[in-house]
Write a structure and sequence with these properties.
Length: 126
Amino acid sequence: MQEKEVNVEGKRRRLLADVILILVILAIGFSVFLIVRLTEDEGVMVAVRVGDGEEQLYSLSVDGEYVLNGGTNKLVISGGEAYMVEANCPDRTCVRTGKISKTGEKIVCLPNKIYISILGAEEVLR
Ligand SMILES: [Zn+2]
């Protein structure tokens, strides 16, 4: 009788240990996935093209204000994010787009033909 109780207790402990082990493995796996995803998406440069002109590259890590297209639009890069602060376009879609910082995100000002996109490390090194 005594021995049987010990056995049941032992099985319970082993089961608990297994569950904890599985949870730890899942947690580690999820953390790695999250870190890889975050660094993958992190933008490095801002590519700005006005009309058919040359693409200008600005670093996302350097804060600054850039007057575009002879003053129709003003782009701000601050704290690793890029956003349009001023625009004379009628729809103001570019201003309303808000802040972009992840690879592949874009701000487009169709009326003024301004295209802004975020480049990740891979695209910059290419
Ligand atoms: Zn616009």
